[in-house]
Amino acid sequence: MLFFALCFSVQGVGQSQKNVDPRLQREFNEAKQLFQQGKSNEAINKLQHVLRLDEHFALAHFALADIYHWKKKSEQEEIHLKAGLKTDSLSYPQGFYFLASLQYKKGVYDSAVVNLKRYFRLSPKKENDAKHLLKAAEFASYAIKHSVPFHPENLGPNINTKENEYWPSLNAEANQLVFTRLITVDSTGRPLRFPQEDFYSSHLDSTGWSVARALGPPVNTPDNEGAQCISASGNLLFFTACNRKDGYGSCDIYFTMKRNGKWMKPLNLMAPVNTKGWESQPSVTADGRYLYFASNRKGGKGKMDIWRAERTSITPSGLPVYGKVTNVEAVNTPGNESSPFIHADGKTLYFASDYWPGLGGNDLFVSRNGGDGFSVPENLGYPINTNEDDEGLIVDVTGENAYFASNREGYGGKDIFHFVLPEALRPDAVSYAAGKVFDAETSQPLSPMVQIINLKNDSVFEETRPDALNGKFLLCLPAGENYGLNIETPGYLFYSEHFDLRDSYEKSKPYQLAIALQPIKAGSVTTLRNVFFDTDSATLKPESFPQLNQVVAFMKKNPEWIVEISGHTDNTGTKAHNLELSKQRAKSVVSFLEEKGISAQRLVAKGYGATQPVASNTTADGRARNRRTEFRLLKKNEDNR
Predict the structure, then answer these.
(1) Which residues pair with 372 in a beta bridge?
(2) Which residues form a coiled coil (predicted)?
């Protein structure tokens, strides 16, 4: 310990030997010997006796401060540091540094700043961490004076109990909450020998959150499970488990998938995600492509770093495989970074750190990836952050609502709280498409591949398969892009939708879809919702090409069919103009298909103008849906039978 090395040395700092009563010096030296013999209480008594005889014996105050530091009694440590420095502020400048450290931890930031500056003025050899501490204390002092709006609300007794509830996680619809509960007593109220961590789930409806229920086996086991995240769709759960037989190190990341409404047996995510080190606190992106987590594995920047694994493949059974693990260098420090949460926008990362300038302990930070890497982290501010440990924050897809666990006033232990996130700290807007896919004739659920296409570059942004039990799926849609939804499966006509989030976005209105796939037979029709024309023109826009190439592929797979391409308009303009425009647009599509090798004998172009509306022409949305191109199966070509 630094105090012992300096204060208990024969040539130690403090009062000059010639100014000290020899009797007091002997008792001081006896206290030193007692402490070295492991008799700390006797040493304390001896030093207190010295101070009763001479309360200005600074060396005794510093020595007592050191012993109390060793005993983790910060209140007594601070008392004796102040007393010693009041008597002798010149001989032991390090005392100001240690005093400032205590004050910073207590949240007395202005005093910490004052004492650190005194330390810098007086100390010939400055502690390596002193500059870092001064920066943190100055930030904390500023943050207290410039607080952010923060009004946490307890989620209530259906979720929170006398036990500890923590690590909340939400699906994209924000109607399913999965969290960890630490069980300390059995059903009779008797304390458990070993407390048990398990997962609980609650659902939100018009009446509020339902009573949380344990997920049960095979996810919950007699061992501990914790630090989990649920995917945007609610069908994947990643979590942490330690010291299991199939583990790679002390703690590993596992995952489970929901199939037919039930969770399957959890699987170890394996190498390279898991190592001999400690891997925990997973957070998966909404599209499932990246998994963020905390680890003390080799090759990091600090004690605990945030890492990212990329999904490299999906097994034939639909299980994700993660590899290409990289360090998220921009947010990591020589200290500890933990509890990462990647928002559904795919680029806003919330995490905890004990090193970036903050208010003490672990603070919550946000960093944004603008395409060229993550930005310098921003502290979420006071009173979201305090001088206590703050971690485990999540934010819903709207970006407005945040959830975290705290031991502030509640039902006992840690509870889960909600608060409205200050606007400056919010992620980008995200919508989502939630739907059900079924057979148009039988209403039976279907599970085809559902793809979200970025129409700008004709690339697959996200894809999933609906639940085979009910045909339901969910895909997130970050704002700022022009998306198409495509569905193809054998035996059915393809299906498409269009989501334009480039200019306008209303996060309160996600896309809810009921998708009836038409069996391949005469009369079946589907709308080409991703075929676009210039205004009042028959010229195809480039964004149409992905959809039209889909039509080409279908025609080549089903060469026996003759199809009709029909154009439709809204009722704006004259009937004659609308009829002609619809004909020309249908012909433009047919020409594109012919250029791609589809025989003209298999194609019929027809315009209907505004005669077959599918929505009211009294609204902009209705008129937009009436302006459409349809693909209809007419009959089989006898020559191709």
Answers:
(1) none
(2) none
Residues 6+ apart with CB under 8 A from 333: 301, 302, 353, 355, 356
Residue 209, strand partner residues: 204
The residues, ordered by sequence, that sit 6+ positions from 373 with a Cβ below 8 Å of its Cβ are: 330
Q: Which two tokens stand for residue 599?
A: 């025989």
In a domain, 606, yes or no: yes
Do 487 and 624 fall into the same domain?
no
Written as one letter, the residue type at 497 is: E
**Which has the closest alpha carbon to 248: 279, 280, 276, 278?**
276
User: Residue 356 pLDDT > 60, yes or no?
Assistant: yes
Q: Is the dihedral of CA 424, 425, 431, 436 positive or negative?
A: negative
Q: What is the pTM of this model?
A: 0.86
Residue 11 inside a domain? The answer is: yes
**Domain at 462, CATH number:** 2.60.40.1120
**CA 379 to centroid of chain Cα atoms:** 16
Strands (E), 440-572: 449-454, 459-464, 472-478, 482-488, 495-500, 511-517, 525-527, 561-568
With b meaning 16 or more CB within 10 Å and e meaning fewer, what string describes 9-44?
A: eeebbbbeeeebeeebeebbebbbebbeeeeeeebb
Give the pair of three-digit tokens for residue 523.
Answer: 């009369």
Q: Give the CATH number of the domain where residue 588 resides.
A: 3.30.1330.60
Q: What is the pLDDT of residue 396?
A: 94
Residue spans of alpha helices (H) in 37-169:
40-53, 58-70, 74-87, 94-106, 109-122, 130-145
One domain, residues 197 and 344: yes
Under 8 Å between Cβ of 462 and 233:
no
Structural element, H or E, at residue 593: helix 575-595
The pLDDT of residue 17 is above 50: no
